[in-house]
Amino acid sequence: MTASRVLVLNSGSSSVKYQLLDMADRSRLAAGLVERIGEETSRLVHERLVAAGGAGAPVGRRERLGPIADHEAALKAVAAELAADGLGLDSPELAAVGHRVVHGGTRFTEPVVIDEAVLAEIRSLVPLAPLHNPANVTGIEVARGLRGDIPQVAVFDTAFHSTMPEYAARYAIDAATAEKYAIRRYGFHGTSHAYVSRATAGLLGKPVGDVNVIVLHLGNGASASAVRGGVCVETSMGLTPLEGLVMGTRSGDLDPAVVFHLARVGGLSVDEIDSLLNKKSGLLGMCGDNDMREVLRRAGEGDEAAATAFAAYVHRLKKYIGAYCAVLGRVDAVAFTAGVGENAHQVRAAAVDGLAGLGLALDPEANAARSGEPRLISPDHARVAVAVVPTDEELEIATQAYALVTR
Q: What's the whole-model pTM score?
């Protein structure tokens, strides 16, 4: 029997998300979440799934409440839940464990089988992703302890954007300083942008290499990318996930002098400014809510702060769409994805409104219809297709990991 299963792990600072997929038919066998690790109120939700055209429909759901001390205890609890469904980590059908790693720097531009040298390099990148890479490393270490005999594969959020040309990736600062401190634009959400750009080409019935697409990954974190023939040539996030679009709690693009002003005039420390821009800005900072559903509700009721926040969000989005049309020269499609992009038809309508000169238009009825399937929401006559493409980062990680270990 050929091993074809991949366990995908996304280890956060206090959580672990997981999915078990069978790459023989790209089906999902199980999925779950462990949250509030290290607290008395820890929670594990596990679902046994049945394959349905590559998607999973729940056939059994279990929830466990109570303290889970650390990531080792969390992964052991996950292993026990999988074993209870006959999907244990000791199965000979398990081919690999795929780990989401947020920052790969310039060293990791494709998935890699993890050994001690790779793990050391991922640790060395912690200063570039202090909130994410330490948790990713912990997940890798624990998983290696549980199944060190099978390949553990790191798939990097930054890798898809490593194809950006130097003139797009470099900041216009002193070259020696940039080199010394690894300051450049890396980009994030890469697994989502890779998956959605390919899926959009499929939706259009064209080879990936023939399609230019602007991908808009709009969740609480948000990013845009310009993808030419399957290759990323520009993206909105930079050294960190702070740059770019207006997000749930992040400011996005900002005059760097705001930082100096807050330090010199406001007396804020570096850590206070960091917290302000990453956790207390964006929609939350402008109107007090970072949930787009609530922002839309309030704006619809005449709330001025919510209406302004929404307008700022859409304005920044339009600026990036226009800029990426210029970067690509020819655009075949604009694809909306992630929580807001997939579900907020008002955001899609507002973002495309007024861009007829760029070839963009929406079919109002198609845009308003709810569906979990990839679909076109532009009229047949539109020069540029507008699509909604549900992202699937777990499947992308599993696909990359499995391709690597079965070469």
A: 0.92
